[in-house]
């Protein structure tokens, strides 16, 4: 299981939102490239980057920052999300050195398009299930859909999807603890490896998630505010995961 630190980029700065609300953010650093370097030195084996402005606009906005990070650290797998709605943007990021492209809104709005993308790009694609009470949210989490997350995953299951991100929006950025029950349910019913996200508070969440790997396929956990505010030490958290015995 990977400890995956999050770098959310808004107006070129590294921030964290509360429940995805763009007007409720904490600015942690004006230089996301410096934050990426800091995480890599601490032992991160994958980075989670989100273009928050892009998620709202429906197109890349902070792509220059993202390209610089991939250029500086070509050996570190990077997953990028936010505003990726067409094939050209997917190809653009992959050509820039990104290893995984995250699709969220477009997976809800255009299922047939995403099926074609999965058939073409395979393991380079991750689908993000951004949920409020089981229903998916879109457009930077500003709108709620009437689609239940697990129903959508069942559609993509047969088209080469290999990994999903499950985010509990109600907990995201709130440091209230992971929704372990929902993560387990989603992993078991969806039948695909899950990256957990939303609300990590401290090392207790890491312990609980590690125990969950005994019965479900959990590939990693995305952590933001808990690392930035010192509740979790990235190096120690990954060391704990590496030494865990199932």
TrEMBL record:
<dbReference type="InterPro" id="IPR006062">
    <property type="entry name" value="His_biosynth"/>
</dbReference>
<keyword id="KW-0028">Amino-acid biosynthesis</keyword>
<feature type="active site" description="Proton donor">
    <location>
        <position position="130"/>
    </location>
</feature>
<dbReference type="Pfam" id="PF00977">
    <property type="entry name" value="His_biosynth"/>
</dbReference>
<dbReference type="InterPro" id="IPR006063">
    <property type="entry name" value="HisA_bact_arch"/>
</dbReference>
<dbReference type="GO" id="GO:0003949">
    <property type="term" value="F:1-(5-phosphoribosyl)-5-[(5-phosphoribosylamino)methylideneamino]imidazole-4-carboxamide isomerase activity"/>
</dbReference>
<keyword id="KW-0963">Cytoplasm</keyword>
<dbReference type="GO" id="GO:0000105">
    <property type="term" value="P:L-histidine biosynthetic process"/>
</dbReference>
<comment type="pathway">
    <text>Amino-acid biosynthesis; L-histidine biosynthesis; L-histidine from 5-phospho-alpha-D-ribose 1-diphosphate: step 4/9.</text>
</comment>
<dbReference type="InterPro" id="IPR023016">
    <property type="entry name" value="HisA/PriA"/>
</dbReference>
<keyword id="KW-0413">Isomerase</keyword>
<dbReference type="InterPro" id="IPR044524">
    <property type="entry name" value="Isoase_HisA-like"/>
</dbReference>
<dbReference type="InterPro" id="IPR011060">
    <property type="entry name" value="RibuloseP-bd_barrel"/>
</dbReference>
<feature type="active site" description="Proton acceptor">
    <location>
        <position position="8"/>
    </location>
</feature>
<comment type="similarity">
    <text>Belongs to the HisA/HisF family.</text>
</comment>
<dbReference type="GO" id="GO:0005737">
    <property type="term" value="C:cytoplasm"/>
</dbReference>
<protein>
    <recommendedName>
        <fullName>1-(5-phosphoribosyl)-5-[(5-phosphoribosylamino)methylideneamino] imidazole-4-carboxamide isomerase</fullName>
        <ecNumber>5.3.1.16</ecNumber>
    </recommendedName>
</protein>
<keyword id="KW-0368">Histidine biosynthesis</keyword>
<dbReference type="InterPro" id="IPR013785">
    <property type="entry name" value="Aldolase_TIM"/>
</dbReference>
<dbReference type="GO" id="GO:0000162">
    <property type="term" value="P:L-tryptophan biosynthetic process"/>
</dbReference>
């Amino acid at each position: 299981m990977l400890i995956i630190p999050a770098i959310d980029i808004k107006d070129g700065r590294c921030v964290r939102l509360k429940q995805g609300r763009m007007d409720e953010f904490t600015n942690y650093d004006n230089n996301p490239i410096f934050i990426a370097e800091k995480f890599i030195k601490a032992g991160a084996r994958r980075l989670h980057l989100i273009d928050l402005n892009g998620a709202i606009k429906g197109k890349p906005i902070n792509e220059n920052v993202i390209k610089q990070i991939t250029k500086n650290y070509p050996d570190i797998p990077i997953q990028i999300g936010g505003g990726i709605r067409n094939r050209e943007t997917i190809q653009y990021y992959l050509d820039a050195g990104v290893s995984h492209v995250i699709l969220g809104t477009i997976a809800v709005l255009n299922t047939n398009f995403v099926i074609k993308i999965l058939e073409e790009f395979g393991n380079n694609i991750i689908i993000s299930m951004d949920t409020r009470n089981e229903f998916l949210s879109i457009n930077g989490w500003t709108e709620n859909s009437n689609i239940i997350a697990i129903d959508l995953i069942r559609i993509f299951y047969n088209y080469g999807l290999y990994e999903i991100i499950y985010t509990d929006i109600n907990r995201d950025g709130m440091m209230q603890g992971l929704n372990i029950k929902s993560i387990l349910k989603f992993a078991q019913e969806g039948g695909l490896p899950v990256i957990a996200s939303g609300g990590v508070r401290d090392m207790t969440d890491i312990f609980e998630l590690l125990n969950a790997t005994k019965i479900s396929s959990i590939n990693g956990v995305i952590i933001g505010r808990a690392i930035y505010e010192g509740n979790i030490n990235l190096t120690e958290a990954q060391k704990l995961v590496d030494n865990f015995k199932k």
